[in-house]
Amino acid sequence: MNFSSKLLEDAVNEFAKLPGIGGKTALRLVLYLLRQDGADVNNFGNTILKLKKEIKHCKECHNLSDTEVCHICSDSRRDFSTVCVVENIRDVMSIENTHQFNGVYHVLGGIISPMEGIGPADLNISSLIEKISEQNSIIQEIILALPTTMEGDTTNFYIFRKLREIDIRITTIARGIAIGDDLEFADEITLGRSILNRTEFETTLKN
């Protein structure tokens, strides 16, 4: 792609680094911004900079938050006896959109994947175990809501083994989610039913 401006080329190259954005789409986005008022472009840039500078991870569940404790963990109306373990913040958003879950979450920040060099130590698993151990009188159920992939199943089993000695109910979402699917791509009705119809994790090991 030939550019008449080095500034334009640099901007397009930066946008093209975003996932799912190719060179042509990046150029279209940059040209769109150039047509906008200076105030709008400044607001766009400042919003991104403020996001990067001020966004936090909730100290309770590792969800993204504006404050030390996210609005879910600080909501007294939530059921703190049930913790839903998810891969990432997109999964929290997907489950919240179903309006079928009123517990709290624990975001792992990924799943175990030896092929990608991601092990248990790279995830928020130790803080999950610590939380359950410290709040065992409060937390009654752990829902494993990870992707129905080999990596997701591996992570589920690892967590199950870590919690096996603790007297707590461990369930997993029903297989209404197709094998190999991520939660964020499931429709809200299917995901909601999968949560409501969750099963004991131990029974899945016998199948």
Q: Name the average pLDDT.
A: 90
The counted number of beta strands is 7
CATH-derived architecture of the largest domain: 3-Layer(aba) Sandwich
Q: Treating each run of at least 4 consecutive H or I residues as one helix, how many helices?
A: 8
Strand content: 5-15%
Give the overall shape, derived from the CA principal axes: elongated
Q: What is the oligomeric state here?
A: single chain
- Topology pattern, helix = H, strand = E: HHHEEEHEHEHEHEH
Could you give a short account of the major beta sheet?
5 strands, mixed
By CATH reckoning, the class of the largest domain would read Alpha Beta
Number of domains: 2
Kindly, what is the distance between the CA atoms of the first and last residues, rounded to a whole number of angstroms?
54 Å
Under CATH, the topology of the largest domain is which?
Dna Topoisomerase Vi A Subunit, Chain: A, domain 2
Neighbour order of strands in the largest sheet = 4-3-5-6-7
Residue share in helices?
Answer: 40-55%
The radius of gyration over CA amounts to 21 Å
Q: How does the helix and strand content classify structurally? A: alpha/beta
